[in-house]
Amino acid sequence: MSIINTSNVEITTFFLVGMPGLEYAHIWISIPICSMYLFAILGNCTILFVIKTEPSLHEPMYYFLSMLAMSDMGLSLSSLPTVGRIFLFNAPEISANACFAQEFFIHGFTAVESSVLLIMSFDRFLAIHSPLRYSSILTPVRVAKIGIVLSLKSVLLVLPFPFTLRSLKYCSKSQLSHSYCLHQDVMKLACSDNRIDVIYGFFGALCLMVDFMLIALSYILILKTVLGIASLNEQLKALNTCASHICAVIIFYLPIINLAIVHRFVRHVSPLFNVLMANVLLLVPPMMNPIVYCVKTRQIRVRVLAKLCQKQM
């Protein structure tokens, strides 16, 4: 009898996971997951529609909010195909090339969102520190240029990911640990030298952490400026303009930091916890950001309610 050496056979299909141990309940789990996707897409579309149709919202702060909404929609739409197939149709297979493409878009939109949150913190600092010069510094043309630069920077940052992953060989392992493809997850399956992927993946994570540290620095400067305001009422009013952005930063970075710690340092962790954290990373920020900005930003809330009342009439 001849024995086939499967370790030399290159794998071209990967297998994603749903909820480990809860496969029998996938169809029921799909109801809240699909609801979250639907809410995220409709919520961000509403934000974009309101900002586009209301001339009074054609200001830098709301332009940046539009960029945030678009990156949230990109994140949702990037993971929706595989998550939907797993929970609705029990189809966890994904081709290698489709997996590499998906992780490019997921990491790309994540990088865009991180950059947008950074520039929004700068926008809040400028509005509080130099309110008289705010409009002259952040003109619509400059805002458009900032958006283009942020998009190019994010694309160039993650562009090597699919190419470095494609250059690796995958021989014996094909089981991924999430419901969608991530760079750090795929590279662990390689049976060839993946040091370049490890180093560049660490560099990509470091860039996100630099964004986070610069955001923290912006808020230190904002707090310093606010404390220099004589009136307590004006101090609270200034800080209130930052509340929505602070919530968005926490919602976005907290799951990323937790997932990064689990991937890099924790050796033995429940597969279910891994999947839950990864799904929180892509489901919660796109769903929560429209809620936060509608609740905490009066201008957005008033316009959304006005649009809803018009439709009911």
UniProtKB/TrEMBL annotation:
The chain crosses the membrane at residues 25-50, 62-84, 104-122, 143-163, 198-222, 243-266, 272-295. One of its GO terms (molecular function) is olfactory receptor activity. Pfam families: 7tm_4. It comes from the Eukaryota. Residues 43-293 form the G-protein coupled receptors family 1 profile domain. PANTHER family: OLFACTORY RECEPTOR 51A2-RELATED (PTHR26450:SF168), OLFACTORY RECEPTOR 56B1-RELATED (PTHR26450). This is Olfactory receptor. The gene is LOC112667851.
